[in-house]
Design a protein that fits this description.
CATH superfamily of the largest domain: von Willebrand factor, type A domain
Structural class: alpha+beta
CATH architecture of the largest domain: 3-Layer(aba) Sandwich
Strand order of the largest sheet: 10-9-6-11-12-13
Helix content: 25-40%
Strand content: 25-35%
Largest sheet: 6 strands, mixed
Number of strands: 23
Amino acid sequence: MNKKIICIFILFILLSLLTVESFAATVNSSDSTIELFNEKICEINLNDIGKFTKELTNFDKNKKEATLTLTVTNSMKEQTYVKPLEVFLILDSSNSMTKTYENQTKIEYVAQTALSFVENLFNSFTNLKIGIISFSSVDPLVDTSLTLGTESDAKLLLSLSGSKDDIENAINTYTQNKGPYTNIEAGLSIAESNFTDSTDSEKHIVLISDGVPNVSLDTENTLTYSGVNAQNTKNRLLKLQNKGYKISSILMRLDESSVVNPAAPVVEGEDRHMTYGELVEEIFGTVTNPTAGNFYYINYNNLTTTLTEDIYNTIVASMDNTIKNIIIKDYFPKEIIDNFNFEYVKSPNVGEVSQQIDETDNSITWNIELLKENSTATLSYKLSLKDKYDEEIANKLIPLNTKLDIEYETSSGKSNNSSEDFPQVKLSYEDKTIAEEKLPQTGNYSPIFLFVVIVLIIGFIITRIKLLNKLK
């Protein structure tokens, strides 16, 4: 019997809650007035290169509507390169470069790509000098006056020059220099000693090879991959980076990275020789974690794009002042969602915005992939009071938004900011009900009345049940 009592009690509580909910009162907007309480402006600094603002750009008291405008401004101007630029191209001319690639030798392919790279640089810069070095360009077995493991394993084809014709001639001459060994350190050492002493110039090294070295400086009798030759080459790269040189290294033959090199040392604890990929990583690191500067481990067919686009863009020294991957999320309070109509007044001139309010978090999202220097993106929307709105929001200060989040990316990295500064409005209405005496406020007191009635009914039922139990 106690279970029956509990069930009856729960049933009446549920009925009472439903009844109370049904008494939520609405008010005609025609009987109401709307007042602007403040005009707070949301302002967010974007890493000192731009600014985000959100402000009330129109408020119509008669139409009971407010227009808000979001603005993202990139206030920076594109900067031009003013420093002198020095670039050394260090090109592999070992015998392996004489193999054919797409109906031409690899050395001719490298030369052809280097010529396009030089053309791009001269189209972009006026204060520019380029030098050309080939390594593995001599054979000490043919010329006995040369000593293996010295700078004679490489050749300075052209000192730093501002003559485009001389640079192109030197690149064409590079195809005629071939040798049996690969001494990358010799080429790096010659470049180091032939840069100017100017502290005002930007100094770049662009290294292109199709294999790892098997000889380095001061290793005349150590013709081997890995070991001392790998360490010497790696140390030279680190030394040049520490001196402030900007290094871009291209290593081709990525498709052979997992192939075992029979001339390489045996891997400790394993019954196999090191792979080409392991030899490469020992010196240059990885693409994501390079030993020095930028490292590109590529297949031959990616050489043109890597050199004329990727490396070219690292040398182009105009500072990147764009703002990228901007995500703006504007959140609304539930009172606004339930009682105001939302519509866009002005679509964004840059980027894309969600078509309607996302009901999962009551927000709209504005995405801007790229905002260039000295440009502005804007977006406007309007909130207008519905014909009928909830009486509970009357005489309350209601913010037009609850929060705004913005994420963005600049040359200094990713950032995010938030703000809760927004305009507020206040609604009031006039009760036009006419009566000689003040009518009971059913919408206000009905829940209390119902609660008392339910309690009395429950008490009566419990008493009756007990009485019936006694009679039994």
